[in-house]
Amino acid sequence: MSRSLYKGPYINEKILKKVQGKKPEEAGTINVWDRASVISPEMVGFTFGVHNGKTHVAVFVVEEMVGHRLGEFSPTKKFIRHGGKMQKDLEIKKKESEVAAAKAAKASGDSKK
Questions:
Q1: Which pTM was predicted?
Q2: Does the domain at residues 13-73 carry the CATH identifier 3.30.860.10?
């Protein structure tokens, strides 16, 4: 559910103080733990290190991000992959076919010389 309009967007005051009066080039990465803070137009051009629970993920703010929250650009879960043995077999076959194709291309390239 969105925040009511009369309250306005939630922007952390400390983040605005870190951004205010600075140029993006001289500020470097600004580490932030407040993932719920909304990106305002003053933040465009800055790089924020948004905490994902383990590390700070670098997020370069562009104009299209205004209105979104900082946490949207710093995923908290790492996708490994689906499947078990069957998926592994498919990956091995794919790798073998790529190697065979590379060898065939190399052989055809050598025969032309």
A1: 0.69
A2: yes
